[in-house]
Write a structure and sequence with these properties.
By secondary structure, this protein is an alpha+beta fold. It has 2 domains: 231 residues, Naphthalene 1,2-dioxygenase Alpha Subunit, Chain A, domain 1 (Alpha-Beta Complex); 67 residues, Single Sheet (N-terminal domain of TfIIb), CATH 2.20.25.680. Helices cover 29% and strands 24% of the residues. The strands form 2 sheets. A 7-stranded antiparallel beta sheet has the order 7-13-12-11-10-9-8. β12 and β13 form a beta hairpin. α2 runs antiparallel to α7.
Length: 383
Amino acid sequence: MTMRSVGTRRATAVRWTRGGRRGTRARGAATEAATGTDAETARARVETVKAVVKPRGGLRKEFADERSLATPREDSKVREFWFPVMFESKFKENDDEFEFNLLDEMWVLRKLTGSEYVCESKKSRRTLSTGVKDGLVMVWPGTCEAPTEQLPSHFAPPSGYTIHAELIIDDVPVEHGLLMENLLDLAHAPFTHTGTFAKGWGVPNMVKFASSKLRKSGDGWHDMGNFLANGKSEGSWKPYPIDMKFLAPCMVDSHIGLAQAGAVGSGAQFKEGVTADECPKHLHQLHVCLPSAPGRTRLLYRMSLDFANWAQYIPGIEMIWTEMANQVLGEDLRLVVGQQDRMQRGGRVWAHPVAYDKLGLHYRRWRNVMEGRDVEECEVEMS
């Protein structure tokens, strides 16, 4: 091989290398141009979709914002109701007394004689009107000196039911309205209460709350009047055999059909499409969610059954019911504590309600009206 041929080959290799580099640069520039064009095209398509697709309707943040976590003001109409604050069964002797927090103020409730009680503030020595109905001691914290309403009479268990538990949880670390909304929403049960009453529940294809406007024969309804007129809203959860009511100002009444006697403790099995009235056995519950302090709730719970009357005589049975209630509440708090945290940080927790949110929305709208919110803030839109 001559020196000339070696030099020629080297020169040719250099030319190919330089040409390859120039080609690579050219191809890279072409790719960048194409990429830029694709990005512009994609952005243009997004803008076109935004212009064509109508934004999904929803509720404004003001419908349920951080203001809802505060204690109802002195002039709030939420105060103009009878509040059940104690079970009469807890008073064993005359002169028995209990301290409790209501509306960010400590009170002392003392039994005098028979069914006479006195409720006095520890701070201001103000006294509240008291009354007894359906086994509950109630107080009137309104601004009027005398109550403007008669004692409500819709807290008693249905006829033929036996009270098995009357429990009090003095401090629940969430605002009472959020706890109310959680109790009024049963759609979360198969996902949240997997270790307690919803153990074994299948996840249905659809959950529907049948309100009065959607009521049909066999829906398991118990009429109590129009919601806006008297502060009550109720209906049936389908496919669960459960009837539920919101009772003003802070009560949830539920009537649950059980397919088997042991379902209370191991998960209430149900047959899809069966109503509460069609079930052989039933559980009745009353939850009273008292606004104790900002972001805190005092909970009263009553449970009644229309079977197993003998169970009330089992030694220590109330401790068993208390443990079960605490387990259910603990499962709920996983959701509600997070919801309260988002509200405190300015989150919108009622963004896009759907059909089965109806009962919770009715409660929230009622609450906003009672708090004197603007009408526009109380509007409810459901997708």
